[in-house]
C-alpha cells in the first residue's frame, strides 16, 4: 500500500499500511552464501518489483536475510509519491550507515522511484550509497554490484519503453502462500499534475498476455488462490501479439485470467475512472471469481480542481461511472484515493469532496494531504497555497466522513453471508481466521476443524466496525 501519512496517526483507524518498510525474507538462511536484505516502501508495484529483484539476485547465488547486520548487500526500494515517503527513506539510510560502519564492505543500494527521481544526485547527497538503480534497470544489478565491489559507484537509471520483466519469475517473498501480485504493465502515460509517477516510472507499456497467464497458472498450481493484477492504470492495458497482430485489452486479459481456474480469485488495481469500460464491468460480472471490488481513485469531488489536477474527468462524469458500476454490479464495493488541499482549493470545493464520499459510498479510501513534488506539472504551474494547517483540517474532515461511510457500509453487511478465502490466523487470536470477501472486506471468524489457510468458506457477518466484519462460518448457501 502507500506510504504512511503522519497526519493519520491518532486520527483514525490505521489504513492498511502493514507492509511499509517490511523486510523481505524467503525461508532459511544458508551459511557460506552471500546475503541480501531488502526493505520496500510505496505501492504494491514496488513490493512486486522487490520480488523481481530477489529473483535476479538469487540467480547470482544470493539468498535473502531478515537480519540487516548479516547482509552483504542492503537494498531499499523507495517511493517518491509524497515528501514524507522520501523522509522515511532518508531516516532508514542513517540506520544503514551505522551497520555499514560496523561491517565495512557491506554494500548499500537504493532502488525504485526515489533513485529514479534523484539519479546521480543521490550519490552526492548520501555518501554511504554504493548503488542507485531505477525501476527499469534491475537486470543490470549483477553488473552494478560488481562495479561497486571494485570500489566504484554503480548507477543505472535508464527508463525503458519495453522492459516488463515478463520472463522473470518473481521470487515470492514472505507470502502467505495464498495471494500474490502479478505485474501486468509498467509506467504511466497520464499526467496528473500532482503526480511524480510518470517521471519515476516512465512510459506506459503492457506485458505479454501469455506470460501473465502462465504466471497465474503456475501460482494456482503452487496452491495460490488469489492474484492481484497490478499497474498504475490497469484499464489501459493493451498488448499486441507480435505474431498475429491482434491486441488484448484489459477486459480480455481479465477474462483469460479468470478462466485459469474457478477457484483462483482475481483482483486488480488501480483503475483510472476515465479508462474503466463497460466491457470490463461486464467481464467482472460474468465471472464469479473476479472480485466485485474496484479501486477507483477520485482525488477530488470538484470539477475545477479535477481539471487543475489534469484527471480528464469531471464530477458528473465520475458520478455517472459510479452509477454504472452499481447498476451493472449492485454488490460491487468501490474504494478511492483522495487528496486534501490541492493548490487553490476553496472550502466549497472541499465540500464537494466530502459529498462525493457520501455519494459514491466508498467502502474505504486512502486519504492524503497534498504534497508538492519537484518537477511535476503542479509544482511548475501552480502555487502550493493552502496552508498546512488547513490541509490537515480538511484531511481530518475527509477521514471523518469516510470513517462514517465505511462503518455504515459494513453495518449493511450484517446478516449477509459471504464467500471468504482464508488468509491465515487473525491478528488477535490463533483461534480465529481472517480472510477477505469478494468486496475486499476483511472478515474475522472462529476457526472450524477441517479448514485451513487457502480454503474457501462461507461466513455470516454478525458485527461491524469501520475496518472489519466479525462473523461465523455457516454452511454454503443452498445446503
Ligand atoms: N495510479 C494510481 C495512483 C498512484 S499514486 C491512480 O492513478 O489512481 C497513489 C495515490 O497517491 C494517488 O491516487 C493520490 O491520491 C496520491 N498522491 C499522488 N501524488 C500525490 C501528492 N503529490 N500529494 C499527495 N498525494 C498524492
Ligand atoms: Fe500518477 Fe495519475 Fe499516473 Fe496515477 S494515473 S500514476 S495519479 S499520473
Ligand atoms: Fe511510490 Fe513509485 Fe509507487 S512513487 S507509489 S513507489 S510508483
From TrEMBL:
Highest rank taxon of the organism: Bacteria
**Major location category of this protein:** cytoplasm
**Domain spans labelled MTTase N-terminal:** 34-150
Which residues participate in [4Fe-4S] cluster 2 binding? Answer: 188, 192, 195
EC id: 2.8.4.3
The record's GO molecular-function terms, alphabetically, read:
4 iron, 4 sulfur cluster binding; metal ion binding; tRNA-2-methylthio-N(6)-dimethylallyladenosine(37) synthase activity
Keywords on record: 4Fe-4S, Cytoplasm, Iron, Iron-sulfur, Metal-binding, S-adenosyl-L-methionine, Transferase, tRNA processing
Q: How is the cofactor bound?
A: Binds 2 [4Fe-4S] clusters. One cluster is coordinated with 3 cysteines and an exchangeable S-adenosyl-L-methionine.
Annotated localization: Cytoplasm
The TRAM domain, residue ranges: 411-475
Oligomer and partners: Monomer.
Chain's role: Catalyzes the methylthiolation of N6-(dimethylallyl)adenosine (i(6)A), leading to the formation of 2-methylthio-N6-(dimethylallyl)adenosine (ms(2)i(6)A) at position 37 in tRNAs that read codons beginning with uridine.
Report the sequence similarity comment from the record: Belongs to the methylthiotransferase family. MiaB subfamily.
Q: What is this protein called?
A: tRNA-2-methylthio-N(6)-dimethylallyladenosine synthase
Q: Which organism does this record belong to? A: Phaeodactylibacter luteus
Amino acid at each position: 500500500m502507500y506510504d504512511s501519512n503522519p497526519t493519520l496517526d491518532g486520527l483514525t483507524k490505521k489504513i492498511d499500511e502493514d507492509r511499509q518498510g517490511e523486510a523481505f525474507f524467503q525461508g532459511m538462511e544458508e551459511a557460506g552464501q552471500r546475503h541480501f536484505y531488502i526493505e520496500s516502501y510505496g505501492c504494491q508495484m514496488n513490493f512486486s518489483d522487490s520480488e523481481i529483484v530477489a529473483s535476479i539476485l538469487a540467480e547470482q547465488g544470493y539468498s535473502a536475510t531478515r537480519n540487516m547486520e548479516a547482509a552483504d548487500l542492503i537494498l531499499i526500494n523507495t517511493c517518491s509519491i509524497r515528501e514524507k515517503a522520501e523522509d522515511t527513506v532518508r531516516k532508514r539510510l542513517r540506520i544503514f550507515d551505522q551497520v555499514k560502519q560496523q561491517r565495512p564492505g557491506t554494500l548499500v543500494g537504493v532502488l525504485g522511484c526515489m533513485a529514479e527521481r534523484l539519479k546521480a544526485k543521490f550519490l552526492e547527497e548520501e555518501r554511504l550509497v554504493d548503488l542507485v538503480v531505477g525501476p527499469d534497470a534491475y537486470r543490470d544489478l549483477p553488473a552494478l554490484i560488481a562495479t561497486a565491489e571494485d570500489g566504484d559507484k554503480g548507477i543505472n537509471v535508464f527508463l525503458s519503453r519495453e522492459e516488463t520483466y515478463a520472463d522473470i519469475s518473481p521470487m515470492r517473498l514472505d507470502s502467505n502462500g495464498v495471494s500474490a501480485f502479478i505485474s501486468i504493465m509498467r509506467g504511466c502515460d497520464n499526467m496528473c499534475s500532482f503526480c511524480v509517477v510518470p517521471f519515476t516510472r516512465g512510459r506506459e507499456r503492457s506485458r505479454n498476455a501469455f506470460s501473465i497467464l502462465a504466471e497465474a497458472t503456475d501460482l494456482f498450481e503452487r496452491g495460490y488462490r488469489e492474484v492481484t493484477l497490478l499497474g498504475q492504470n490497469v484499464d489501459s492495458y493493451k498488448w499486441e501479439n507480435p505474431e498475429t497482430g491482434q491486441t488484448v485489452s484489459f477486459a480480455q486479459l481479465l477474462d483469460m485470467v479468470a478462466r485459469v481456474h474457478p477457484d483462483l480469485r482475481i483482483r486488480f488495481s488501480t483503475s483510472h475512472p476515465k479508462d474503466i469500460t463497460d466491457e470490463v464491468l461486464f467481464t467482472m460480472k460474468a465471472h464469479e471469481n473476479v472480485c466485485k471490488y474496484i479501486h477507483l481513485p477520485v482525488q477530488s469531488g470538484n470539477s475545477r480542481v479535477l481539471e487543475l489536477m489534469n484527471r480528464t474527468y469531471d464530477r458528473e462524469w465520475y458520478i455517472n461511472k459510479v452509477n454504472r458500476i452499481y447498476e451493472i454490479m449492485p454488490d460491487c464495493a468501490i474504494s478511492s484515493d483522495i487528496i486534501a488541499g490541492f493548490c487553490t482549493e476553496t472550502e466549497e470545493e472541499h465540500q464537494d469532496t466530502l459529498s462525493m464520499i457520501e455519494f459514491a459510498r466508498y467502502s474505504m479510501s486512502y486519504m492524503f494531504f497534498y504534497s508538492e513534488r519537484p518537477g511535476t506539472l503542479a509544482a511548475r504551474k501552480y502555487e502550493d497555497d493552502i496552508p498546512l494547517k488547513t490541509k490537515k483540517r480538511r484531511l481530518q474532515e475527509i477521514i471523518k466522513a469516510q470513517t462514517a461511510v465505511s462503518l455504515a457500509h459494513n453495518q449493511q453487511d450484517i446478516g449477509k453471508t459471504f464467500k471468504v478465502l482464508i488468509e491465515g490466523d487473525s491478528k488477535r487470536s490463533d483461534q480465529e481466521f481472517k480472510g477477505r470477501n469478494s468486496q475486499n472486506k476483511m472478515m474475522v471468524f472462529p476457526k472450524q476443524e477441517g479448514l485451513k489457510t487457502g480454503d474457501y468458506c462461507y461466513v455470516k457477518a454478525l458485527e461491524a466496525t469501520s475496518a472489519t466484519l466479525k462473523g461465523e462460518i455457516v454452511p454454503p448457501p443452498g445446503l
